[in-house]
Amino acid sequence: MARSRPPSPLPRREFLRGAGACAGLWALPGWNVAGLFSRPKSVAIVGAGVAGLSAARALSRLGIDTVVLEALDRIGGRVHTAALGELRIDRGASWVHGMSPKNPLVELFRRLGVRLVPDHVPFHLFEEGNGFLPKWEVKALNKSVTAFIDALPALRAQLGPAADVGGGIERFLTLRGLSGTTRSRVRFMLNAFFEAWYAAPTRRLSLEWIWEDGSFPGLDGFPEGGYGQLITALAEGVDVRTGSPVQSIHYGPSGVRLETSHETLRATHAIVTVPLGVLKQGAIHFDPPLPQAKQAALDRLEMGSFEKVHLLFDHPLGGQMDELFYRPRAGGRLFLKDLWPFSGAPAVLALAGGEFALRMASQSDAEVLRETAEMVQRVTSSGPPSIHALPPVRGDVTRWRDARFFGGSFSYLPPGASPADQQALAAPHQRLHFAGEATHDRYYASVHGALLSGLREAGRIFGRDLDVHDLI
Ligand SMILES: Cc1cc2nc3c(=O)[nH]c(=O)nc-3n(C[C@H](O)[C@H](O)[C@H](O)COP(=O)(O)OP(=O)(O)OC[C@H]3O[C@@H](n4cnc5c(N)ncnc54)[C@H](O)[C@@H]3O)c2cc1C
Predict the structure, then answer these.
(1) Which residues line ligand 1 (CB under 6 A)?
(2) Cα maximum dimension of the chain
(3) Which atom in ligand 1 lies closest to the alpha carbon of residue 447?
(4) Are residues 294 and 417 in the same domain?
(5) 40 and 187 share one domain
(6) Which residues make beta-bridge pairs with 267?
(7) Which of 2, 26, 24 has its CA nearest to residue 267?
């Protein structure tokens, strides 16, 4: 169950406000932060997710006047800890991927006094009709993922740079001479694995760039009490204005002007951290239009679909659950995870990536919850002891794909896109800077990538490289 957050050991920052009058362009009405223009640099940040808040916190601590404009009435973006009954749930990110000292999140959570609970539970495979597959078969299927990753260079050489992962999987199955049930199970496992990791149907994923993104060593872990504790700490002492969707950004060689529905802000620099989906939709008007190279990168990169369903039951689930890929008879796949070992609550998390997430988009919350609960019931009643999992007392279904200020869960590289597009998206243009997970060419689609991208742009503006120690 949720543990109350210990007091933040991150040093409380005195928000730096100058007192002097200002002149020139920056004296125009707009900022309503007292004395903002007394400093040579002022930064307006669009979006209060991890990227925006880490940039804002670092710059503020370095004495640069910073304001964050956030469209929603809450901060955190795709990090969103919410309540489901007594349970704290993370509707967006929940794992710290790779609990090694190299991961900047590990140091931040350590300083916050938030324990990272290692996620190390047995993994199963459950087929509707057949139940749990035997351990030896699950082990063999896991090995097929490693074998596929080892075969990537050969597959790329055979299929060329425009190939997709789905095509690569089919070629791999053929090269291995697999047929019948084994072929269909290995196909299922590979599709389920890559869809869950990259949030897109494997037919939409670039074979050339899959598994080329970076990772940190070590187990994954959950921040005990929720990821939102990171957001609270990053936002401490930062001027964040929620309910302020930015509609247009005017920029030039000497400054920027941002317009929301109710105010106009001027600054020497802006950092745009809105999700790739928002930029792709053209929801923010840029004047002048973004350079061609950036627009082309925006057109090539894609936003994936990855949704979460939380179910909270009124009594402990019996039977064998741990974590598993669920294979419905009708096709598709879902990842189910028993949250009992982590939260002490009778709760299950279902993750739908790629195709299954797209299918969920056409269903009502009630339908999704009922279908997921039925799956949990089949799983938990198939292994001894038999129990009744239905009905869940409460449930929560995310809709990141259709959410206005997101347009998807996280970015991925489809065939034709490459890390050069992520670099083009990240390139500053005049006084306009870009951060956010989709701008990181190594750690995209992650919280640590978002954090590092915010520090990268804050560093570019400040004039030196910044790291996690500039946040604490
Ligand atoms: C379901 C799900 C599960 C995930 N799981 C993990 C995980 O376990 N581990 C992990 O490392 N990563 C995970 N991720 C990815 C991770 O959450 C993101 O990569 C990261 O949080 C992105 O941060 P960001 O600052 O780049 O963007 P965001 O958090 O999206 O922040 C951008 C902000 O911009 C705001 N905005 C949009 N338009 C405007 C506008 N016009 N004006 C002002 N503000 C605007 C948005 O409201 C948002 O608050 C997950 C993501 C999802 C959706």
Answers:
(1) 46-52, 69-72, 77-79, 92-95, 97, 245-246, 273-275, 278, 283-284, 306, 308, 398, 400, 405-406, 409-410, 436-437, 445-447, 450
(2) 77
(3) 11
(4) yes
(5) no
(6) 256
(7) 26
Q: Provide the domain limits for residue 153.
A: 136-204
Residues 147 and 287 in one domain: no
What is the pTM (predicted TM-score) of this model? 0.91
For residue 49, the CA-to-ligand 1 centroid distance in Å is: 6
* Residue whose tokens read 């061609």: 292
pLDDT tens digits for 43-70?
999 999 999 999 999 999 999 999 999 9
What's the residue count for the chain? 472
> What separation in Å is there between the alpha carbon of 21 and the centre of ligand 1?
37
More reliable by pLDDT, 214 or 36: 214
Which atom in ligand 1 lies closest to the alpha carbon of residue 450? 26
* Best of 264, 274, 306 for a ligand 1 pocket test (most atoms within 8 Å of beta carbon): 274
Task: Clarify whether residues 190 and 243 are in a common domain.
Answer: no
